[in-house]
Amino acid sequence: MGILGLAVPLVVLVGATPPIQFAKPHLIGYGFADAPRIPLVADVDGDGFADLIAVYPPDPGIVDVALNVRGAKFAAPEAVARDLGADLVAATTRAGTDGRAQIVVTRGDGAKRIVARSADGTWSVREEVEATTSAIPPASAAAASEGPKRIVGDFDGDAKPDEILLADATLHLAADPTTSIAVPALRDLPAGAIVVAGDVSGDHKDDLVVFRRDDAWRVGHDILAYVAYRDGDADQDGDGLDAATEARLGTDPLDADTDHDGLSDGWEVKGEGALDLPALGASPIRKDCVVYLQRVEDVDGATCAREIGRAVDYWSRLPIKNPGGSIGIALHPIWLPTIPLKEGGKAWWDQGNANLPPLARGLAHYMVVTNGGGGQAGELADMGGCGVHALYATFLHEFGHEVGLSHTGGPNATWSPTYGSLMNYAYNYSFNEDGNAIHYSRGELASIVLDETKLDERLPVEFSKISFLGKAPYRFRVKEDGHETLVDWNRDGVFEDAPVRADITDVYGADGGNRVTVGKTVFAPTLVEHCGKALLFAVNRAKQLTRRECLGEDLWSNQVDEAVVPGITPTGDPWAVSTGESLLVFVPTDAGISVLEAAAAADLDGAKAPVLADSSGLAVSAAVYESRVLVFLWRDADHPVKLVERSASGSLGESRDLEWLTSTFPPAAVEDPIAHELVIGTGVVADNAYKRAWRVSRVARKPDGSFEGRGSRIVGGEKAGWCGDSRPVLVFENDGSSGGRLHFIARGLGGGKDQNGCFWEAITIGDATENEGWRLRRFYDEWTTTRSPIGACWHDRDLVLACRWYGNVHGDEDDNLFVAEHGLGIRPGPMTDFDDVSEIADVGLARSIPWRHASAR
């Protein structure tokens, strides 16, 4: 069969009464034979239905085949031949034994490999030695993957080759070569689409099969069949229903799937595979979706039935209009036998592969319900799992993934606060502070495009449509202003006229940028900006102090061959500070806190390392206040923090107890660049659910050199319960535009020294009504965890973060040292609302179940 690569599009044969026409496009596959593969269509198993073939020319040279399942869908693709070579330049098919087409693959040297399927279903590969008279292969595999300029096939079933020419989009039948039949369809396909001829409908007439290769969201990799038919054929679209039945049912006789739900009209009328679709109530003129559900033994069945019933009702009311005039999508749940508790710990994909009936693959979805919360599912796929806790919400969210929705709905990388969908982590359990109001979005606010680097605090939208931004979880200050709405995106308490920069997507987790792994560390990393450079210090598994420098975006020196500071063996978490002229690194050792000092990081290699007196066994941090280095030494919550000051001449004095300062973990401090006060972060016992809290205290130096208190407050307020169990880092934004915003960055409660914990930051904001002027943000997600304090510093108008990763999943990730350079969470790029409902109805339903199981043949 011939193929044709198009730089333009495809539609339908037209004319007064053309002898051959093509039915409307029918989705028969998805994401198969993408570039640089060479797509082919031929009947390789001799069952009368053409199969899909993809030849991968680069090394190692692969042939994939998806076998036809009686004309409606295809079995999941499988690799039938490998290691054919790295220089394949062409592929085609030819007639073989007993009606089984052979796949002919040509190498750059002209040698041919023949890939064929035997009667027993096995595949073989042989080299064809004899010279052939076939056409010279194209000069490259890329040319072959684009296809020639004409389509050759037997479109009228007379066993003679007809051809379609791209130049004028016309069909020329062998029976009447002087007559040109217009094929306007060839003018309407997206650029790059490839058209192949093959009898996928099994009616002895070749059809047109289109392989899309464009960037359109979700649909740019469709495989579409345009079934060839003659006027008067009983079943013109190949769906198994004759014209009289189509007329009686109100279905489209030229569309094999009238309602575009991925279930052909014939299946919804007669049933298919393991599913008696008519008995379920399926209809070819109303969208249907079947899901097999299965609960683990320790999950309450009554809860499952009730909450899934709510989901069925919600789907039935989705605002989409069906071909028959009804509204909504009919969701059909089928409950499988309960999974024994001993088997309940398996991954959802293992449960699905074991329990979803093979004959239901390509027709239905699967969801396992476990005793917990949350869940996970394949995106635009047929399997997933969710927890029974808040099952209505978790099912709708995870099943939304299965039918094609991302966390932003569509292709945007970051979810928008205006995307009010339950797919958005900000609204997956509650919307407008109402758990019953969660919903899939209709994209009503899609015209508002947000970019965190340039946010307009005046939105051209009625207050009533966006007032939910003032409710949990975001709680932005919003104000009605005529037909517009004001939003304080950067939370500074002022509605600005000029665009502002702010992270407005921090509800689930603040995105600090790419987490770049630069090595290993067994203790906390420490970051410092010195002479305009961001420097990172850590301790490798050999207990050596290492140093690195930021060289650019996501690029750090010594990422492979780390630089080691010799002559020192750390035993705890180091700390680094800069006076502007001098770089100091404080390192716990067996002897006590060693102090390294130099003008540049490289000079630390030869620096002496004096030990602070009486510092053995203590934890350390430091700050620069009024141009002098203050070193804080901590033993435990029952002893006052000790202070060592560095004199103007550079010498370190004796330690003294700060009787007014205790902490449940090692403290940290920073100078407020505006108030010129020393801000100290500590942990205290508190009257809240966790019995502890973060606290910041402000002090200033008196003329006699001692400190006087300027006030203290619990971070987030007395009842907030914001707390942690490890040394924090305090950083002020100092770009002149933040009004002195403070970042209190620390690991949260991890359950102890040897337990993992997420890391967080509390930031000061201009809205005193929210947690007494504070906002709490977790960095990244619940899987980004550590057993050590966090490193952070201000650099290049952003917050740089460093973390000792602890949460091994795939191998040796524990102790990974990662760095992220955008801790403010402000990322460029568009954020918008998205129309979930249309995406589910028009895209996801059909494309999430593209492939049948081989046993369905």
Instruction: Give the strand tally.
Output: 55
How much of the polypeptide forms β-strand, as a percent range? 25-35%
Terminal residue distance: 23 Å
Rg: 33 Å
Structure in a nutshell:
With 857 residues, this protein is mainly β. It contains 9 helices and 55 strands. It has a 5-stranded antiparallel sheet, with no helix packed on it. A 5-stranded mixed sheet has the order 23-22-24-26-25, with helices on both faces. Strands 31, 32, 33, 34 and 35 form a 5-stranded antiparallel sheet that branches.
Describe the structure.
9% of the residues lie in helices and 32% in strands. The chain is mostly beta strands and 857 residues long. It is built from 9 helices and 55 strands. Residues 1-15 and 132-136 have low confidence and may be disordered. The strands form 14 sheets. A 5-stranded antiparallel β-sheet has the order 1-18-19-20-3, with no helix packed on it. Strands 23-22-24-26-25 form a 5-stranded mixed β-sheet, with helices on both faces. α5 packs across α7 (391-402).
Keywords summarizing the entry:
857 residues, mainly beta, 5-stranded antiparallel beta sheet, 5-stranded mixed beta sheet, 9 helices, elongated
Which secondary structure elements does this structure contain, and how are they paired or packed?
Elements: E1 3-5, E2 21-22, E3 26-30, E4 38-42, E5 51-56, E6 62-66, E7 68-69, E8 73-75, E9 78-81, E10 88-94, E11 102-107, E12 112-117, E13 123-128, H1 141-146, E14 150-153, E15 162-165, E16 170-172, E17 181-182, E18 194-198, E19 207-211, E20 222-226, E21 228-229, H2 243-249, H3 265-270, H4 277-280, E22 288-295, H5 301-316, E23 330-335, H6 348-355, E24 365-370, E25 375-377, E26 383-387, H7 391-402, E27 458-459, H8 463-466, E28 478-481, E29 484-487, E30 516-520, E31 526-530, E32 533-539, E33 545-552, E34 555-556, E35 563-565, E36 575-578, E37 583-588, E38 593-598, E39 619-625, E40 628-634, E41 641-645, E42 656-658, E43 668-671, E44 678-685, E45 692-701, E46 707-714, E47 729-732, E48 742-747, E49 757-764, E50 774-778, E51 785-786, E52 791-795, E53 798-805, E54 816-820, H9 836-847, E55 851-852
Parallel strand pairs: 8-55, 22-23, 22-24, 24-26
Antiparallel strand pairs: 1-18, 2-21, 3-20, 4-5, 5-6, 6-9, 7-8, 10-11, 11-12, 12-13, 14-15, 15-16, 16-17, 18-19, 19-20, 25-26, 27-29, 28-29, 30-54, 31-32, 32-33, 33-34, 33-35, 36-37, 37-38, 39-40, 40-41, 41-42, 43-44, 44-45, 45-46, 47-48, 48-49, 49-50, 49-51, 52-53, 53-54
Helix pairs in contact: 5-7
